[in-house]
Amino acid sequence: ATSSIKFMTFSFTHEGIANVLLLKHTDGILVEGVMEARQVTKYSQFSRLEYQGVDVVKDGNKQNMHHKVFLIDTLSPECTIITGSMNPSKGGDTRNDENILIIKNDKDLCEAFEEEYERVRAEANS
Questions:
Q1: What's the pLDDT at 126?
Q2: Looking at residue 77, what is its pLDDT?
Q3: Alpha helices in 1-126 (DSSP H)
Q4: 78-87: long-range contacts (C-beta < 8 A, 24 or more apart)?
């Protein structure tokens, strides 16, 4: 399976996390994501990622797409899910009380998260 990083984020303003995604993209790893449309502001990393060729779209949920999840190699047995309350933002990283859960090698959970990602992505593209 091809290496991939897929993400669904509510607020994504963290330059350092975006830098890592851009480096992975430059290395030929598939990087794509969905961001909450109302959080795509001048502070968001959306335009920067899009400009650099990352396949990023605004969500299609009329309310809030409130996910905070990164899916790494979900189609491989060594998949990793990173999720929790933390937005990839400076506040999430340095000021707020947050939690992050890193789940490795759980095929069933990876499939469930991949299915949700594909649902959210299809809604964004419709």
A1: 86
A2: 85
A3: 15-26, 46-51, 90-94, 107-125
A4: 78/104, 78/105, 79/104, 79/105, 79/106, 79/107, 79/110, 80/104, 81/106, 81/109, 81/110, 81/113, 83/113, 87/9, 87/10, 87/11, 87/12, 87/13
Low-confidence ranges of the chain (pLDDT < 70): 1-2
Q: Residue 118 has what pLDDT?
A: 97
Among the listed residues 97, 103, 65, 63, the one whose alpha carbon sits nearest the alpha carbon of residue 83: 103
Collapse the DSSP code of 103 into the 3-class scheme (helix H, G, I; strand E, B; otherwise coil) and give the result.
strand
* Main-chain phi, psi angles of 102, to 5 degrees: -115, 120
Tokens of 101: 């859960």
Task: Please count the other Cβ atoms lying within 10 Å of the Cβ belonging to residue 72.
Answer: 20
Task: Give CA–CA dist 54/33, Å, rounded.
Answer: 8
Q: What is the pTM of this model?
A: 0.94
What distance in Å separates the CA atoms of residue 103 and residue 81, rounded to the nearest whole number? 5
Total residues found in the chain within this entry:
126
Query: What's phi and psi for 95, nearest 5 deg?
Result: -115, -40
